[in-house]
Amino acid sequence: MSNSRFNLGFIAGQPWIHSPWTDIIFVLFPAFLATGLVLCFPGFFRESSEMQSWFWLLFIVGVDVAHVYSTLFRTYLDRQEFNKYRRPLLLIPAVAWGAGTTLYMIDDMLFWRILAYLAVYHFVRQQYGFFSIYARREERARWERLIDSGAIYMATIYPLVYWHAHLPRNFFWFLPGDFVGIPSPVLEYVALGIYGSFLLLYMAKEVWFTVEGRSFNLPKNLVLLGTILSWGIGIVWMNGDLAFTATNVLAHGIPYMALIWFYGRKKGQVSEMGASAKSRYTIMWKSFFKAEFLPLFIGILFVLAYFEEGLWDGLVWRDHGDLFPWAKSFPGIKDKWMLALVIPLLSIPQVTHYVIDGFIWRVRKPKSELERSVFGRNQ
Known about the structure:
Elements: H1 2-12, H2 20-40, H3 42-47, H4 53-70, H5 79-84, H6 86-106, H7 108-134, H8 142-165, H9 186-211, H10 218-237, H11 241-272, H12 280-288, H13 294-317, H14 336-346, H15 348-356, H16 369-375
């Protein structure tokens, strides 16, 4: 009985974002799920250089593109946040289109290359972001933060360096050739040495603090372990498009959509306690972000993602006509100058997502509205 109470107390006392089970299932588990599938069926994932249509629909449309649109509920559809960030939220899409069109006119591969590295930066920063969220209660010395940051960053950076040092691979970010190859293996070996050093330092630090009686931060360590496994296996160990997509997309998109949902639920709860509890705005937030409306939330994101990808397929790619029969009648664009207008236009949602995600989650002051909205009583 005492052990059971200890275990329950240990779990409940962790710095969860929403609750133990929701965090474990929707934030932490996706990386392990994707990695487990790849490890259980290595032959299938290793040999799949191309994805079947339903895999593509599930992973790319249903998770990757859908998670981009979930940002709407954190910005453009959130009246308070839209008023707070009105200028950048209005300027970023216009600047993205203008800059993207200019880059594409100069060199179409330059456009895709910059977009790919912007996406990579976004994916790397998200892992650091979740890691930092779960470390928010810890009073860490500067050297501890350095080791922590080095460990989580190198868990993503080393696989990326390996990828650049072993081009071409059977997968790519957007288009073949969007990454610049590293001609010498020296940088890869240096990155591996730095990666291994930080992991050893991190493990030694965690063991030391645990022995000294410091509480073991379960979710923070699961974020690191999940990142090590999903990025290492999906990029380094495997060389298949489906393996990379599964480990990359599931571990990134599902936790992000969950964070948006957690934010929406707790935003309504916090607003309800304030002076505007009876406003239509508060009622909307409180009503929409209920468990029974979760399928509607996911459905809206899927419809938006499906519509965008249909435009991409009908106007540009024309390689998934079986999934978008309504777009087959669209005129496939071949003219480079027209593509320079259309492709950056279609890229606005993801570019906007990459850019605004860099500042909407920053917590500049302790006990801030964002901190209360996202973490609630779990601070």
